[in-house]
Structures are given as structure tokens and as C-alpha cells.
Amino acid sequence: MTDLPANGPAGSIPVHRPARSILETDARTRARNRAEARFRAYGLGALLAGLAFLAILLASILWNGLGAFTQTRLALPVELTESELDPEGTRDPAALAKVSTFGYEDLLEAAMARLVAEEGIATELEPGDLADLLSSGAAAQVRDAVLADPSLIGRTVTFDVLAASRVDGYVKGRVTRESLADDRNLSPAHLDVADALIADGDLTRGFNPAFVLGADASEKRPEAAGIGIAMLGSLYMMLVVLGLSLPIGVAASIYLEEFAPKNRFTDFIEVNIANLAAVPSIVFGILGLVAFIQFAGLPTSAPLVGGLVLTLMTLPTIIIVTRASLKAVPPSIRDAALGVGASRMQAVFHHVLPLAIPGIMTGTIIGMARALGETAPLLLIGMVGFVASNPPDGVLDGFVSPNSAMPAQIYEWAKRADPAFYERAWGGIIVLLVFLLLMNLAAVLVRRRFERRW
Amino acid sequence: MNDLRLFERAQAVDETKISAKGVNVHYGAAHALKDVSVEIGDRRVTAFIGPSGCGKSTFLRCLNRMNDTIPSARVTGRIELDGQDIYDPRVDPVQLRAKVGMVFQKPNPFPKSIYENVAYGPRIHGLARSRADMDAIVEKALRRAALWNEAKDRLNAPGTGLSGGQQQRLCIARAVATEPEVLLMDEPCSALDPIATAQVEELIDELRQNYSVVIVTHSMQQAARVSQRTAFFHLGHLVEYGETGQIFTNPRDPRTESYISGRIG
After folding, report:
1. What is the pLDDT of residue A11?
2. pTM of this prediction?
3. Residue B120 and residue A334: Cβ atoms within 8 Å?
4. How far is residue A123 CA from its own chain's centroid?
5. Which of A330, A341, A452 is opposite residue B97, by nearest beta carbon?
6. Are the C-beta atoms of residues B262 and B229 closer than 8 Å to each other?
7. Could you tell me the domains of chain A?
8. What is the ipTM, given to two decimal places?
């Protein structure tokens, strides 16, 4: 029963196998064992190096970014003098609105001077200089409050106003007297006043919900910038991505995997889908610019367009993952369904698809997480940059009103000159990472929940 | 059932259920089945035997057009069920498969409950008008498959939790639940132990009362035990077809003789 000839050439090859006890290892075995030990050491080393870098990354993100979640504020009693704000005493909203934020600056300067005097702080700074301790948005904050409630006029109201970003940086340890030497906004003398205000409990550092919920602010007011509206933009984009890429991707996969004839054309499509998954995302941005904005005439900077672009980018991933999940369903299940007279559609939707759902869901969530972190395609459709955005007027308006996205907002902050924005960028990364972690957690949970248990 | 008194087996009136004439199957360039003509009788068990790759499973899958699901497969020739060509363009394979049920080599219950496994076919074909109807259909099918006594207390337990033999009987129950006229079995016992095999074989003998059964098997003993007629396939050809007793005791073709005596295959 063997092909070896009994006395042929193969039968006469000499075999060197010296007699040796199995209790002693020979040189070859020792060499092989050493190679294995080396390989294990490489693996462990790579793993530890990776973990070390991860730890460094997380530590530096938290170290740099946590500051963005707190903000320094000053409790400032402001006398809202009637002669300045409403000389005619009509309380007519139209008349009140005529007083610009410029008109409120004097009130703030006076309020600062009075506060410093009341606390008994000795300083050579003029009232106009003292107001530099405040955010340049403080006047607008007071004005908004007055316009909302004209009855405040004539009273002295304590406002919780944001401190200027340099003061905030001083409280957080980012700004020192030395670094202010060349600064045109603030002088060391300001910091002396700030120290005294801190000692008196007027200037305090507290949690800053506006960073998580608020809108971006201009270059002049890093202390007021928040990621909230960009988060809303990301949310709207994800809704578009989920609503389009999941049904289209799953339907396309089912068609390609279960119904399409296997020929050159479908092979060509298959190769192209695989390649699309590797196309640089900025190319999808150009496609979106041409197809959705220039051709279809959709508005720029709109989360709807961003979502469409990210849908294009996510579709190949979802199709590939879904097809793999469908392929992983044993063919015997299809045979069983067809064998009892189910149509192919019934076989797929009653038996194959339910078994593939955990894989599809996981792939979709991972694809969406990737889309959530994309910046490059948004560059070309006007969602990166200072998008002066307000909360949308309604649920549907959110799809078309100009907005940014979380990663685009982080990028925008990172490239601004003021170091206060640097802290904002790191804080934004923390928010983004929390979302990504939650989505990945959801993927794991979905997988556990829907996995076939029998 | 396990006796080998082959000649004494009563032959029913021989009505042809399936008639195949000049059937050829190609998988791409490979010619898998060459000019097979066979008449399969009603209410009897027909066994297809032969070495691996001889085309017996391919032929079986032609009988309910399961080969349609393989894109490269091409079937020519004529196969008639009750005198009607099953490859006629007007025939919907879905309807055909409701008439010609199939049991596969490896037990392949759906990952659903025992009840749902059996009820699936009747449900998609609209055989039950009410829940009570469906209960009756499921019970009847499980009784026919000799699984009722073991499964009646756990109809909602997953079908995949049964033992291998029980799973295969569940698959048989699932196949008979749609009231087919022909039952095709592709090596139904090859994944089972001898005890489960004996149960399934006994079942096949009983199913003969109602159905025309075609069974593909590697075991010549099994063919001898359960079938009335046997077809021997070799290298894509139908070498010999006849009464089981005659095939096993007095084969006409030397290749058949070599195979059943263990010299080839």
C-alpha cells in the first residue's frame, strides 16, 4: 500500500538518527526552544510597548484636556444704571436694543472698579484696564440678560461672568507672570488683582457645562468656546449615516451575496467595493462637494451633506462586513430552508439574515465610529473652520443649518494661535473619545446580546 | 426490517413516480452525470449507491432542482414527476420542492425551537388556517418521524439542542410536515451512530407507506436493508438499476459486482 519501491533509490536514503535518551535535549531541539522563547519575548515586548504608549497617550490627553471642563468665573455686581441703558425710561425693547454691547462696557468697567475698591485691593490699573480681567463676551452676557428682563434696569445685579482666558490660564497654571511679560492683553499687575480676588472668593474655578453644551466662540474668546453644537452636528450626521448606510449597505450585501449572478461584472463590483474601503476619505469629500453641493445644490456646511459624504465612506465597510457575516452562515441553513420549499428571499430573510445580524450590527457600529472621527471629507464641504453656529431652530433645521462636527471642531481649535484653544482641543478629544468608547461598548454588547446561543 | 430475505419482499404495483431520461449534469467544465435514465416507483424506497463522486448525490439534487442554487451547474435531459417535466420553464422550483422534500446528509435544523422547525414549511405554504391546525400538523409530522414521544414535552426547546439522531428525525419531520409526495434523502445516516441509524432506517421503512423515498447511501448494507430498488452509479454513469435483491445477489454488470464485493470504491 505504499508507492515507495522496496529497493529503489528512495528506500536506500540513509537516515542519521543517533540513538539518544529522550531525557536529554539535543542541540536542534534546544535551538528550536530558544527561537520560540525569543518569539514570545518579542510579542510580550511589543504588547508592553503598546500599552505603555497607550498609557502615555491617555495620561497626556487627560492632563491637557481636563482643564477645559472647568472655567474661572467672577461674581461681579453690576449696577444697571437707567441713564445709560434706558434714558427715556420707556422699557421699550426696541429702544433697549439700540444700546450695543459697547454701551455696557462702561458699566462693567465701573463695576470692576467698585469691586476692587470694596475688597480693598490696591492697584494702579485704570478701570478700563481692570475690565480686561473679564471675558470680552461679558458685556454681551449682561446685555442679553437686560434685554430678556428689562425690569433689572436700575438695580445692581450680580452676574457670574467668565474671566478672560489669560486669567483662566493663570488659575489653571498655564499662564505665569513671566509669560505675560510680552503679552499685550494682560500685565502682571492684573494677576496681582486676580490673586486678591481669588483670596476674597470672588474669582472661582468651577465646572463648565458650556464647554460640553455650548457653541464655538471667536478667536478672541477662547474661554467661551464649547463643543456642544459641533456635537449636535456630529449627531445629525450620524443619523443620516445610520439611516442611509445601514439599509442600503445591508440590502446591497444581500443582493450581491445571495442573488447576484457570479460573473465578471459582479466580480468587478466586488473588487471595487473592496477598493472603495481603502480610498482616502478626502476623496469622498471631493465627491461630496461635486455631487451634493455643486450638482445637487444642497447647502454647504450642512450636516445633511456631511452625513451623505460619510455615508459614502461608510457603505463599503458595512457591505464588506455584512457580506462576511452572510458568508459565515452555514450553507446547510439555506439548503434546509430551500429544501422545505422556501423561496430564496424567504430563506434569506427568515433564516440567514437573523443569524448574520450580530455581525452586521457590530460592523455598522464600528463603521459609524470611524465616520464619527472623520475630519478630512468635511474639509471640502465647509464643515471645518469657524462655523459660527447656534443651536438649530428645530429638529429638521438641524440637518441643513450650518454646523461643524466634533473632530472638525478639535482640528479648528488645534490650529488657532491662542494656547487657551490648545486646552480646548484636548478637552474636545476627551469628549470624542468618550463617544467612541460608548459606541465600541455598544458594539460589544450588541454582539453578546444577539449572538446565537444554541 | 433487518432481515436480508431480499426476494421475498413484496413488490407493490409498480407505478412510476419520477421518470428521468437522458439526464446530464455539468459543473462548469466537469461532466458530473452522464446520460442517466431511471424510473423511480411510487410508495417504495429506491437506493442510490456508488463510490464517492460518482454522481448519485448530484442526481438526487436534480430531482427537486436543488442544483439550481449552484450557479455553475447545468442540467440537461428530461425529468418528469407524475408525467410533468420538472425543468419546464413554467415550473416554480419553490412549488416543486414543496412536493419533493429533502433530508440532508448532516442534520441541519434551524436554530429555532423544535415546534418552529416543523411549523416553518407548513407556515410558508399556508397549510394551516389556525394555531390548532398548526399544532395538529406539527404533532402529526413529529409522530411520523418517531420523535413525538421524545419531543412533546419540549417543543419550545431549541432544535439544535437535540442529539444527532433526534436532529435528523426532526429534519425528517420538517420535510414530511409539508406533505410532500417524494422524500429525497442524501446519506441521512452518515453522521449518525448505529442506534440512531437503526431508528432512521426503521422510519424510512414506515415512510414508504405514504411516500416515494429516494435515498443516497454509502452503506451497501443500508441499501440492502431499506430499499426495494437499487441504482449503482460509477464515474457519472448509471451502471445498473434493478430490484435490490437482484443487484446484491446477481449483478449483471461486472463493475457492480466488483463494488458490492468490495473490490472497487
Report:
1. 53
2. 0.81
3. no
4. 44
5. A341
6. no
7. 74-206 (no CATH), 228-450 (1.10.3720.10)
8. 0.86
